[in-house]
Amino acid sequence: MTQTAVNPLVRMQEDLQRAMQKPLERRSWAMVIDTRKCIGCFACSVACVAENVSPPGVTYRTVLDIEIGRYPGVQRILKPMNCQQCENPPCVPAANEVAPGSMERRPDGIVVINYERARGREVFEAVRRACPYRLAVFFDDGRFHTDGTPARQAYEQRPALEYGRNWSRTQDQPPVNTVRKCHFCLHRLEAKMLPACVTTCIGGAMYFGDLNDPNSLVSQMLKEQRDKVMRVNESRGTKPRVYYLTDTPVLCKSHHP
Q1: Listed residue (178, 163, 182) closest to 82, CA to CA
Q2: Which of 28, 93, 123, 153 reaches 20 to 30 Å from 83, CA-CA?
Q3: What b/e string do you get for 127-148 counting C-beta neighbours within 10 Å, with b at 16 or more?
């Protein structure tokens, strides 16, 4: 009798539970995105905005629509994009040169921001210039979606749980006037929950787990589909921890933003 396949979300949740039993430095978080399954619904972007109570102009996750090739061999690639959580993140030294202690890379691979130090346009511009990934970092300029209306809506007044703390956006207080970006939903991981984008993906294109676990779904996917793997701007030596699966990895590499 054929064994029933385990739902990928259930599998990843089990992987996560196993990883969280290990010390921080023994985890190695990574994301795998199968561009062949992405349907461009932007559910991941909406989930991200809701999870992190993001203001106008701040979207940790977006979906790029890319055309590659020439007629009649044109292909359309839908590529979700967020911070790549690089092993060699150029943004960290750039930010810390302007504002010491404003960014760091954790032992588990997540690049994090200190909202109380990464403040001001100067820090943001330094990070933006250093980052080779378009649509990876954003600046919270203090706007609200309901600006110009009589009252703030409840969803904008809800505090965001990021970096182990509840943040309420008030004038000139963090995270207003700070650099912001994806953190793999660190607060959810610490609660033993998968990132919001992964659990919301309608097409089942998002995968997440611990690369230090050879039995994790992400480890096995990257091993079994090694000829389909692409990492954006890999030649820059950043060693991004977001992996893309595509049938044409070489062609896709030459058409990244």
Answers
A1: 182
A2: 153
A3: bbebbbbebbbbbbebeeeeee
* Sequence-distant (≥ 6) Cβ neighbours of residue 115 within 8 angstroms: 162, 163, 167, 174, 175, 178
pLDDT in tens, 124-179: 999 999 999 988 999 999 999 999 898 888 888 899 999 999 999 988 899 999 99
187 vs 31: CA distance, rounded Å: 16
Question: pLDDT by residue (tens digit) across 87-121?
Answer: 999 999 999 999 999 999 999 999 999 999 999 99
Q: Assess contact for 51 and 185: CB atoms under 8 A.
A: yes
189: helix, strand or coil = helix
Residue with tokens 């954006």: 232
8-253 adopts what CATH topology? Alpha-Beta Plaits (3.30.70)
CA angle 187, 59, 236 (to 5 degrees): 90
The amino acid sitting at 162 is: E
Q: How far is CA 192 from CA 12, 20, 207, in A?
A: 11, 7, 15
Q: How many C-beta atoms surround the C-beta of residue 84 within 10 A? A: 24
CA angle 234-80-107, nearest 5°? 55
Residues 6+ apart with CB under 8 A from 81: 61, 62, 63, 64, 133, 134, 135, 136, 232, 257
**Whole-angstrom Cα distance, residue 252 to residue 161?**
35
Size (the chain), residues: 257
